[in-house]
Design goal:
Structural class: alpha/beta
Number of strands: 15
Radius of gyration: 26 Å
Strand content: 5-15%
Shape: globular
Mean pLDDT: 82
């Protein structure tokens, strides 16, 4: 029986080929998606997160050079190095396909293709990609602990903002190492998702990632939960218990909310990290542990150290690499793509015929403060999808009071230069529709007319 797992994206402008592959490939892949051109390739990659892309070499019949395929193969590998690209080419373009492999493509398939050869190449590419991403590991029982399903249903959503681009470069460097990582950021910024990303791209990806909400463990159970206990260690210890450190042996231990650990318990944690060994409660045997440690907190640990509430030696021990995730309001260009991604997910889940967000909805989402960050955005979009009635989400569907207020004040209390830019942008994005632009800016039509006249637009 065929091994059915993984996701493949087919990009080919021949409808017959797309249809044939939609029939053939579901036997071997869990999900198959197709595109007629690379126009929406970037957004589809972010949303769909494929293991393999089967990419045609040509999309413009008047320019049969294969350069489009080479260009997009390079863009895919730059954007998602872990995704494997298989080139789809005519016999005459084999030399170009070979050049594509030099640039990072996994292999190429010549049209017309042999089904057996096609499946062999695509499944080999899939298996290589899934091993690199650690996706099979995440679907196995070894992935335990308090890490909830991530915010976007896949790996990290990097977006296009500068802060996230810098973080991605750091992750590229440190993920394959065993460096201890401290992730900081406000609630809802995706600290647990980033921890998963680092584990999935590490050499430990085939081993478990065990997550612990350190702030949720009671003091009396702290040592038992982390280090385990032996039978009879205390009243309710009816059997031996393996703690989180031992469960994560060979893999990654993720300590979330580490700033909430009481000071007197921090010494015990430090000792285990330093010695790379633990002793179960009630036992005497020292047990070696082989883990990679990733910690996260929404607290300012440096301030806690100054206040004497967090051990300085523990802080330096967990802070080999520090990654500070930005708040959503600090990466505004990623808000709408994230919202669109959530919309597509929930439209499918709740069977709503939604295509996207209208311009007014985009405007209020971009200008909301999002104190709950990505998690809040996800919840808002889910509720809006459930309540929606049309083919697009509107401000009425979103029902976000803070977003509405943001829209009302979008062009207030800003400099004239900034105000002119906002008005010009609104007019361009609505193709000159006065009503739509006024709604986007949160002003009346007469007010917008006055602004247009003021700036000669």
């Amino acid at each position: 029986m065929a091994s059915k797992k993984g996701k493949i994206l087919i990009v080919d402008d021949n409808a017959g080929i797309r249809q044939a592959l939609k029939i053939l490939l579901p036997v071997h892949f869990t999900e198959v998606e197709t595109l007629p051109s690379p126009v929406t390739l970037v957004s589809t990659l972010e949303r769909f997160r494929p293991d393999v892309v089967l990419l045609d070499m040509n999309f413009n019949t008047s320019i049969n050079t294969g350069n489009e395929g080479l260009y997009w193969a390079g863009e895919i590998k730059k954007m998602m190095p872990e995704v494997e690209v298989v080139l789809f080419t005519a016999y005459a373009d084999i030399a170009l396909a070979v050049e594509g492999m030099k640039r990072g493509a996994f292999d190429f398939i010549v049209k017309p293709w042999d089904n057996e050869k096609l499946i062999e190449v695509l499944t080999a590419a899939r298996d290589k990609a899934r091993k690199a991403m650690g996706r099979d590991a995440r679907s196995e029982p070894g992935m335990t602990g308090a890490v909830t399903p991530d915010l976007i249903g896949g790996l990290m959503f990097w977006g296009t903002s500068k802060p996230m681009a810098a973080i991605r470069k750091t992750v590229d460097k440190i993920a394959p190492t065993d460096a201890t990582v401290l992730i900081t950021g406000e609630n809802g910024t995706g600290k647990d998702v980033l921890a998963r990303e680092i584990h999935a791209r590490s050499l430990r990806s085939g081993k478990p990632m065990v997550a612990v909400d350190a702030g949720a463990i009671t003091e009396t159970l702290f040592e038992s939960e982390l280090f385990g206990h032996v039978k009879g260690a205390f009243t309710d210890a009816h059997t031996d218990h393996v703690g989180k450190f031992e469960q994560a042996d060979g893999g990654t231990l993720f300590l979330d909310e580490i700033g909430n650990i009481p000071l007197h318990l921090q010494a015990k944690l430090l000792r285990a990290i330093q010695n790379r060994s633990i002793v179960r409660v009630g036992g005497s045997e020292s047990r070696p542990i082989n883990i990679r440690l990733i910690c996260a907190t929404n607290m300012d640990l440096e301030q806690l150290v100054r206040e004497g509430r967090f051990r300085e030696d523990l802080y330096y021990r967990i802070n080999t690499v520090h990654i500070a995730l930005p708040a959503l309001r600090e990466r505004k260009e990623d808000i709408v793509p994230l919202a669109q991604m959530f919309l597509e997910r929930f439209a499918e889940k709740y069977h709503r015929p939604l295509k996207g967000l209208d311009e007014s909805a985009k405007a209020v989402l971009e200008n909301a403060r999002w104190s709950g960050n990505i998690r809040e955005l996800q919840n808002v979009i889910e509720k809006a999808v459930i309540l929606s009635e049309g083919s697009e989400l509107t401000v009425k569907d979103i029902q976000l009071e803070q977003a509405a207020k943001a829209a009302e004040t979008t062009i207030k209390a800003v400099s004239e230069a900034e105000e002119e830019r906002l008005v010009r942008d609104a007019m361009e994005r609505t193709d000159g529709n006065i009503s739509a632009a006024a709604k986007m800016l949160g002003v009346s039509r007469p007010t917008l007319y006055a602004k247009l006249k003021k700036y000669g637009l």
